[in-house]
Input
Amino acid sequence: MSQPTRVIRVSDMTGNEYVFTEEYLLYGDVKDALHPQLDTKPLRRQLVLASSSYAVIEDDTPLPQYDVLRLYLLIKDPEWTSKQQNAVITASCSCVVFRDILPGDIEAFVWGLNRNEFIRSLYVYMNITPIIHIIRQSSFLRRLFIENTAINISSLSDALRENKTIDELTLQNVLFNDKNIQDFYDMISENTALRYLKISYVNDNGAITLSESLGINTSLHTLDLSQNNITDEGAINLAESLKINTTLIRLYLSDNKITDDGAISLAESLEINTSIRRLHLSHNLITDDGAIAFAESLGINTSVLTLNLARNRISDEGAIVLDDSLRINTVIERLNLKGNRIYNKKAIISHRIIT
Output
């Protein structure tokens, strides 16, 4: 005989009652928890905590160990109850979103987070200073995402030097300056845990400094520098580092300002590099000269599986030369030329080219 479904009843001060089954775990103010920005339609397999006096939790049984996808914290009141602290400690969620927390509640949240062994991903949208020590000491965090927040890059770099488990790092809309960017890339040179790195607000100076780190780093598998302000100068330096680096597998340089000079340097690096599997250069300023350079390198390279040159300025001439190169190269699986200035698509024979 199947077990009866456990019911959680939540009532607010207006007398409205909300009923959730055990797969809908809801703590706190219902109106806030069901805010559309939280993607809780329906609120399924997600745990929402909101410290609020406007709701009453009638079910006092312990929280089950759910594989919840996200732990949202919407803090309203200055103090946490023991139940809410226990929820942070025991919630078996893979991801915590760290935002909208009042200063008085941060200490309690960090206290719980520091004791949770289930959480693998941490998304930070506010001052990261209170959790620097968690980043430094954590033995369970794997992914760290920081966006739109004031951050002491030097402190973060120091913490990541000591951390041995974080292997994915994204810094989105986090501003660097010439002083702290050196600290950060020095850390990249020394770090042996990071496998994935995505950063924004990178210009040529940042790309040049990062290139020096790539010549030393032996752990990074994926580098995403898409949607930045990198021109040929930065691309040429990155290309030089690819002649030395033997571990990078994926390089994303889409949506930058790279022209043929940078493309030619990157193409030439592929004649030496044997580790790159995916190179993305869509939404740049590459013309037929850059396409021809890649065609020549593909006649030598035997490791690249995907080359994305979509939405550049390549014409029929460059496309046909690339098509010819695939008669020699039998390894590459996909060459994306979509959105270029190719009109004679019937001249493209290879089924591996997307136009």
Notes: Residues 178-190 form the longest helix (13 residues).
